[in-house]
Design a protein that fits this description.
The protein has 90 residues and is α+β, with helices and mostly antiparallel strands. The protein has a domain at 21-76. The chain is built from 3 helices and 4 strands.
Length: 90
């Protein structure tokens, strides 16, 4: 029988991996200085994330080089279907 601590450690690893991927996938890159702006910068990211992606283009100023640029949000949702919960949680 698997130890609950092992299960929690494995779950923590999966959450961390997902979190890092989400952050990388949702970062912006300034078109002027090529610096990466990560989503945890809430002040910068506010107003960029909408439900349908229909609020753009949105004006932003790079926190690094202070030049202005415009952002268009794209929303793409996908789904995966599974026969069992065990398959879904792999």
């Amino acid at each position: 029988m698997p130890d609950i601590m092992d299960h929690e450690k494995e779950l923590d690893k999966k959450i961390k991996k997902w979190s890092e991927k989400w952050e990388k996938d949702h970062a912006l890159i300034c078109p002027h200085c090529n610096k990466t702006i990560y989503p945890p910068d809430i002040e910068f990211m506010e107003r960029l994330i909408t439900y349908h992606g229909e609020d753009g283009p949105i004006y932003k100023e790079c926190p690094y080089c202070e030049k202005e640029f415009w952002v268009n949000e794209k929303v793409n949702r996908t789904w995966d279907e599974f026969k069992t919960a065990k398959e879904a949680y792999k």
